[in-house]
């Protein structure tokens, strides 16, 4: 009797281990061209949108671009409102002289890579802070500061869409 029970349990365990499982999270779409991944963790990933590199307020020593954060579906969910924040975008400004950065205007979106509907806009007061030169942000900062100021595109327009929560 014990031998039969042991065989049945072994078969059940083997069958359970070989069963196909379906992932609960759908993978994010491929990033748009010009958007490069800087880092990833269990909650999502951080990207630099190199399509948006420009001088900040016309200052040739300051470069701005969007940093995008894409979140996995379960990370920032507002179940009562049936809204899931899938990504956010923040204006990142690099000071090419002092190697510092500041962040302004964080916008949350319903889709990855700062796409979809605008959920909320928060106006951040930019505070200059240093960053390690050998960090992913330091590598991007070094690269964008090498672009001559006269070759930069105009800055993207600020977000004007009405947010869902605002």
Automatic annotation (TrEMBL):
Pfam families: Adhesin_E. PROSITE patterns: PROKAR_LIPOPROTEIN. Residues 1-21 form the signal peptide. The keyword Signal applies. Residues 38-146 form the Surface-adhesin protein E-like domain. Keywords: Signal. This is Surface-adhesin protein E-like domain-containing protein.
